[in-house]
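Sequence design from tokenized structure. All designs in this work follow the same two-part layout: the structure record, then the generated sequence. An example of the structure record is given first.
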């Protein structure tokens, strides 16, 4: 394995963006809105396309504005479909984000000759090329680091409100905190996080970073501060191990099947796969621990 400076920046950027996604993803999970992260990551696509068509620019501010508008629209439309259509929340979200995602793809294809926007890059990400920069520190690394700090500060500042809205919305309302407003703010933060993650993990693979680290951490602890800490650790581990897997898997699979000319593996995709593997490990650890506890309880009751 030949490790270069480019690999180092891929790992650093991956760690930063995965941790930045894990923070709002934890509270989305606690609010039983994990699929909203899925919906946002798909539904921001038309917001990006419209922003590109209006500004003919890929600057971060029009991108973020379009993503936030689309994210809020997703949340509002989902509530409207659920309330007036009297359908289950998951079905309402599926209707909304599938429709918006399809509209976004159509807009990108229609404007492909006018706007410098690669659909594959938006969907799958390109962290290998995103870190290529003439500056000492790649631009995407600065963005990822700033996003992580911004999300961490927001959670630290609104920790009490987020915890109340997640665990006891009625109490939060009684104490003067609007639980719905807090969840809407969480939607906005998730939208901004999603669009800023496009350059590294893409609009689809960001789903894994929003959901899987927090879900895996919830298998190991039920205390919120430990849940956040473990989600960050698992997100960072997914990035590091994912890139290592991406640069070693090709040789392993090629040697296994006698094909040395296999193409390169996507680091972003391997980060998502690694997150899934870590989730499976956490689930197995929890299952073994529960089995051991049941055996101990059964043994103690038999002795008594």
């Amino acid at each position: 394995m030949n490790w270069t400076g480019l690999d180092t920046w891929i790992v650093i950027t991956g760690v930063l963006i995965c941790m930045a996604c894990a923070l709002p993803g934890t509270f989305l999970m606690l609010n039983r809105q994990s699929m909203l992260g899925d919906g946002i990551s798909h539904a921001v696509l038309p917001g990006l396309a419209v922003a590109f068509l209006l500004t003919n620019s890929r600057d971060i501010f029009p991108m973020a504005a379009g993503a936030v508008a689309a994210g809020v629209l997703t949340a509002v439309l989902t509530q409207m479909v659920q309330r007036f259509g009297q359908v289950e929340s998951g079905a309402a979200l599926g209707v909304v984000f599938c429709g918006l995602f399809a509209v976004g793809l159509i807009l990108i294809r229609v404007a492909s000759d006018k706007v410098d926007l690669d659909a594959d890059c938006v969907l799958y990400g390109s962290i290998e090329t995103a870190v290529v920069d003439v500056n000492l520190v790649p631009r995407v690394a600065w963005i990822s680091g700033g996003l992580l700090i911004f999300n961490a500060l927001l959670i630290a500042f609104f920790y009490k409100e987020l915890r109340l809205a997640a665990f006891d919305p009625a109490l939060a309302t009684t104490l003067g905190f609007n639980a719905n407003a807090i969840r809407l703010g969480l939607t906005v933060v998730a939208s901004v996080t999603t669009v800023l993650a496009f350059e590294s993990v893409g609009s689809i693979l960001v789903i894994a970073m929003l959901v899987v680290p927090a879900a895996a951490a919830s298998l190991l602890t039920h205390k919120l501060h430990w849940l956040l800490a473990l989600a960050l650790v698992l997100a960072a581990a997914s990035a590091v191990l994912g890139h290592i897997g991406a640069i070693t898997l090709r040789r392993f699979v090629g040697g296994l099947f006698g094909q040395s000319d296999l193409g390169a593996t996507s680091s972003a995709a391997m980060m998502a796969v690694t997150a899934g593997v870590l989730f499976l490990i956490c689930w197995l650890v929890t299952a073994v621990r529960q089995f051991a506890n049941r055996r101990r309880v059964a043994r103690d009751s038999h002795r008594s």
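The CA atoms of residues 45 and 182 lie 24 Å apart. We note this feature because it recurs in several other targets discussed in the main text.
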